[in-house]
Amino acid sequence: MKRESIVPAACAAVTYTVLCHPHHHTVFIVLTDGPGNKDDITRSKNEGKELSKEEKQRLRKQKKQQKKQKERKNEKSETEKEKTPVSLLPPPRPVATQKAPSALPAPASAPIPVPASAPFHSSPAPSPADKPAKSKAELKAERRARQETDRAAKQPGSSSSGIKTKVPLSELNPVVKRLPEHVQVDDPAVVKRLAKKLERQQIPLRSDYGYKVSLFSHLHQYSRKAPLTQQLSIPSTVIHPSIVRLGLQYSQGIVAGSNARSVALLHAFKQVIRDYTTPPNEELSRDLVNKLKPYISFLNQCRPLSASMGNAIKYIKKEISNIPSQCKEEEAKTKLLTCIDRYIEEKIVLAAKAISKYAIEKISDGDVILVYGCSSLVNNILCEAFEKSRKFRVIVVDSRPRLEGREALRRLVQRGISCTYVLISALSYILPEVSKVFLGAHALLANGYVMSRVGTSQIALVARTFNVPVLVCCETYKFCEKVQTDSFVSNELDDPDDLMVTRKGKTQLENWQDVSSLGLLNLVYDVTPPDFVDLVITDLGMIPCTSVPVVLRVKNLDQ
Amino acid sequence: MELQAVLMAAGGGSRMMDLTYNTPKPLLPVGNKPLIWYPLNLLERVGFEEVIVITTKEVQKMISTDPKVKLDVKMKLDLVCIQEDADMGTADALRHIQQKVKTDVLVVSCDLITDAALHEVVDLFRAHNATLSMLMSKAHEFTETVPGQKGKKKTGEQRDFVGVDDTGKRLLFMANEADLDEGVVIRKSIMRKHPRMHIKTGLVDAHLYCLKKSVVDFLADNKSISSIRGELVPYLVRKQFSKSTNSPKVIDETHQNLKKNDSNVNLEIQISSRDEELLHLTQERSCWNDHRGDMSDAYHGGRLRCYVHIMDEGICYRVNTLAAYIEANRLAPKLFDEPAVHPSAVVSERCLIGADSIIGASCQISDKTSIKRSTIGVSTTVREKVKVTNSIIMHGVTIEEGCNIQGSVICSNAVIGRGADIKYCLVGSAQRIEPDAESTNEVIVGTDQLMEI
What we know:
The structure holds two protein chains of two kinds.
Chain A: H1 13-20, H2 24-41, H3 50-87, H4 99-103, H5 105-108, H6 113-122, H7 131-154, H8 159-175, H9 188-200, H10 241-252, H11 258-274, H12 284-302, H13 307-321, H14 329-362, E1 367-372, H15 376-387, E2 392-398, H16 405-415, E3 419-423, H17 427-430, E4 436-440, E5 443-444, E6 450-453, H18 456-465, E7 470-473, E8 502-503, E9 506-507, E10 525-528, E11 535-538, E12 541-543, H19 548-558
Parallel strand pairs in A: 1-2, 1-4, 2-3, 4-7, 7-11
Antiparallel strand pairs in A: 5-6, 6-10, 8-9, 11-12
Helix pairs in contact in A: 1-7, 2-8, 3-7, 3-8, 6-7, 6-8, 7-8, 10-11, 10-12, 11-13, 11-14, 13-14, 14-15, 15-16
Chain B: E1 3-9, H1 17-20, E2 29-30, E3 33-34, H2 37-46, E4 50-55, H3 57-65, H4 67-72, E5 76-81, H5 90-96, E6 104-109, E7 112-114, H6 118-127, E8 132-138, E9 160-164, E10 171-176, H7 188-193, E11 198-200, E12 203-211, H8 213-221, H9 228-239, H10 243-246, H11 248-256, H12 273-285, E13 306-311, E14 316-318, H13 322-335, E15 346-347, E16 352-353, E17 358-359, E18 364-365, E19 370-372, E20 375-376, E21 381-382, E22 387-389, E23 392-393, E24 398-399, E25 404-406, E26 409-410, E27 415-416, E28 421-423, E29 426-427, E30 432-433, E31 438-440, E32 443-444
Parallel strand pairs in B: 1-4, 1-6, 4-5, 8-13, 15-18, 16-19, 17-20, 18-21, 19-22, 20-23, 21-24, 22-25, 23-26, 24-27, 25-28, 26-29, 27-30, 28-31, 29-32
Antiparallel strand pairs in B: 2-3, 6-12, 7-14, 8-12, 9-10, 9-11
């Protein structure tokens, strides 16, 4: 699959011009690029199934095209008039995330808004600053597209090429993906769909708790005191016991941290695979994937899946579906177990070693390093650097309500590293002493933004103001194809009761639910823009934040 | 499969011999249901489909013919008989069924009546990968007068000292007053690891234990432990802090000699070593710790953990004394919402039946009777002008006219003669009370029973 190099944050119009170039081979590129492009812009969950879906879509499009060809010949005269009002629509484009409305005008009358909708999709991706310039380019592109279609329609002999040029443009509308369900909790239709799906999988639905701050009312908010196991039968038969245990550990916070959650997930999957027997008349490759689906829903209900877990699940599903059907069950199982072990070994353990090696080069004697919260990777790096006799001291910054910094502090002091501990409110006081900031990441998004524990973007911002270099350490398996520019759209809301604190026997916020104007917000993640990050240290090397999509592309090519 | 349920129904009811000399304890009627129905109902409600019931032959025969158990309990009951005179403790019984135990077990006693949320106990067991998880409840004072008790209630009941950590979940110390010579002795190593310990004495042990499979295997190797409550639980609680379970050297050895019977410390051997590595990696990378303030890892690196869930509110009774039996009968109607008066009972119109009374099936209640706060058993006949208050009447009893029964327990098939005045008495099974007898605070049992002490 050949692709053009995608330069993020620059004109996505570049990809558009590729689209309307009437070369035959670019048609193919467009066909596969179409959904790929969409992935950058919208949040597609189905990367693993792209190929077969694209083939199906292509067939569907071709059928549609043949229909539209006939229609277009009748409506050709009308299209000239309607093009002008439609082209005025692109400039006043709302927020990047509103994909659904753009899908609506597109299928309405297919040939007309098709050229107009293409700029629709490309325009929201770049930053708002580029918008006025964008609209001119958009208009130009539309006009070119219009000319193409007219030219193609006028030539009866070249109707096939007309179809080909039409196909890529109309490709774009039905490929627009809907918003993922977990950020549409305030939409009752979505909630109903989720409830139906869970009922089908025989998994209890976890109900939301407490008043949600309006800006985040589209996210789930659960209470730790109402675990999902309340509604399950005790010798859990529907869900494998190790998955129930894992879900409990996630929801109670016993297994916390991106790496720990992935390792625990893979460990639980190993138990599931060990205990699995193929039912008669079923194939392991298909049945096992279907068995895993309710488990994943269950874990999602206990605590929303992290990006690393998502990638691990994708990998496992791919491995399972790639098992040849003539493979015996025992063989298949051992193969899967070794795959899982290898994945953990390569992507987590060895990656940590590689990252430490690179990071230690960046640590010099006399450094004062600032870390935030408890990142297993950063702790690993610091411990290894200390063992390699680098002289440095560490400042651990911590924040409520999780106070994870205490655990990081304990691990570092246990090794003998001299540490200082402050709360995040003292950040600007302590930063003049700091020479470097090391941050861990929960995920690295496709547009170079870093998703990490809430407070990280604060630290990066203040460090940038003090001209202190900020280094983010992240393994490549945490890179995800999502795109986010703010912390509101997709986040996680933790239990609001965690914010209550008891001092001298009194809990001031005990009855916060009774106060109608009070909402407690316990965010878990936030998103740091790439301008604040100086370097990302991954197991592939030290890269700038903007090269994350390149890594993603290379990864996809490998697979 | 995750958990197997084991119901211990072989106990003799040694603390209420007056009631149990004729009816075995699992079949004593509480709220007109056999006592064993309550734990079975609890297990069924929670979602168990099979239960292993360890009982005596006598009970087994009666259970298979008892209509309540047959109709209401939809689970599969696997009845295992043990000899009555073998004097087996609960741990011995577990050892007896070791072959049937394939996964972790949930051991329940037949005299437990509770509405506890079992998932709390099992969640502790699952989430912390615990070896033992148990249920306890705050004890309630029994307010009812117990028939046959002379003088004040004895406070010499052996107390249990239960030590829990700051969160109230981790079990640190468990000892019975009988085992302590002079005072409560707590090891310094425990205090160093858990500086804040709450020691409670007013707790009722519900005798509901979640045990790992390795504990059952360990019991098979150690035949000296015969009671779960008395010996196994304190042993496990002590072993949490013993140096030998925690040192890595011993763990390596136990990996090598998997089935050797000599050391009685190999409680943690069954997981394969690769998975152990992954679990260790998870714990290493996770930023969670169960305590703070010292330099140790989560759980202080200990591999054996015991947890307890202490219920604050809710019903939890162990029906092993007469007082508990009476209290349980009072509260039994609250646990299920069957109609208080059984539809097949023949109740005449001019009798007064209080709202908190239970009338069993096929009863005959005649005119002008007054029944308040009482339980009338199956097939009991109550003639005219009888006043029954605060009492428990078991099955097949005949109460002639004009009787006045207050605060008493009348066992099955007894006959109360006409005009008798019974106050706070215990009338044994198949006894006859003379007409116009007046008894207060007496235990009336057959002469053959007086020999059993």
